[in-house]
Amino acid sequence: MAIAFSPATPIRSQLTQKSIPSKPLFCFQDNFRTSGNVVSWAASANYVSLRVGARRLQPLVKLSWEKRRGIVRCATIEEIEAEKSSIEKDVKERMEKTVENVRSNFNSIRTGRASPAMLDKIEVDYYGTPVSLKSIAQVSTPDASSLLVQPYDKSSLKAIEKAIVSSDVGMTPNNDGEVIRLAVPQLTSDRRKELSKIVSKQAEEGKVAIRNIRRDALKAYEKLEKEKKLSEDNVKDLSSDLQKVTDEYMKKIDTVFKQKEKELLTV
């Protein structure tokens, strides 16, 4: 709802020039009805704010004259909504991915109880190409203290065995020519405390990533405000909603952290 005016020319004369075609000069966010009169104009070199009755219409977009020929261009409501939706979608996707990464890191840390997720981070050199272990073999838990790795291609047994030995899972593979068995050793009290510190650090790194995503979204909203596509009130509302989403994902990280910590400290 902004239109460019020359500071030296009265507003009334600008609006009544014969050279200006009789087209709508303002873009409003929604249709509205009013029985009041225009009370005041607040003008600057770049835009005009309109007050109708007791209602002040916030500038939604910045309008400009193209070659001073009376052609008004502005971003449409659809375009602005599309930009907002894109930012919101990106925020949720990135935050969800961050939580999943934290959960995946937690799962790869053994707790004394066998879990196929312990081998999720292992990559195998399969015919010259690094691939995840779970993509070329089935990992199961015959009991609470052992893992069974059954490759889809038996010729990959040696490569799988080598990858497990080179990893930091702390388990020795037993290759019988058909499958690989792994015994999961019990954790000592000191090792449990050490691992608890590791997962605490990983949880904090996840929270930092969430905060960085929030920061990026705020910058995107501020950019739209500078472009006169959003009002200051719009940005405040969006920032408030963004904080709620941020708090939600912070709680998700706290939840998975507490679950993992409980597993580690339970003998």
From TrEMBL:
Where is the protein situated, by its record's location annotation? Plastid, Chloroplast
GO BP terms, alphabetized: plastid translation
Give the residues annotated as coiled coil.
Answer: 207-248
Species assigned in the record: Anisodus acutangulus
Q: What does this protein do?
A: Responsible for the release of ribosomes from messenger RNA at the termination of chloroplastic protein biosynthesis.
The taxonomy runs:
Eukaryota, Viridiplantae, Streptophyta, Embryophyta, Tracheophyta
Protein name (record): Ribosome-recycling factor, chloroplastic
Q: Which domain of life is it from?
A: Eukaryota
Q: What are the recorded GO MF terms, alphabetically?
A: ribosomal large subunit binding
Domain named Ribosome recycling factor is located at: 103-265
Kindly state one GO CC term assigned in the UniProt record.
Answer: chloroplast
Query: Which CDD domains does this entry report, sorted A to Z?
Result: RRF
Q: Which UniProt keywords apply?
A: Chloroplast, Coiled coil, Plastid, Protein biosynthesis, Transit peptide
Q: Which SUPFAM superfamilies match?
A: Ribosome recycling factor, RRF
